[in-house]
Amino acid sequence: xxxxxxxxxxxxxxxxxxxxLKLFPSLSPAEVLAGNTIDLITFHMLSADAGRIILAILExxxxxxxxxxxxxxxxxxxxxxxxxxxFIPLFAFPEVSFSHAPFGFTIVGQYIxxxxxxxxxxxILLPGKKTVTPKIATE
Length: 139
Hints:
The protein has eight helices and two strands. The chain is mainly α. The protein has one domain. Strands 1-2 form a two-stranded antiparallel sheet. The protein is globular and about 65 Å long.
């Protein structure tokens, strides 16, 4: 098994596990933060509970997609969008994210910042464009 495959599986397991925890109230330490963030970005049109369930399903599907490599290009792009959204609480809820802004993170802020590593790993998994090497005519 190659390194990229192992990287895809490991990130997929994280998504699958963290997403599954959100399906059961009070199991995910990120549940309240995720619910409050979704409530905020949907302008209160989606309740925290509904948002948590939708997010959980999305994370589980991303996890399954990364593990199976089904539609990997699409799944990685969705995961990247999700990862960028995880930084919203740093700006929307600084009192939860920082003990001393902007450098002293709370455990919540550290939880968010570790996503930088996941973003970089997802970028590695993102398939690059294939380049075509022009053929040189020889005489």
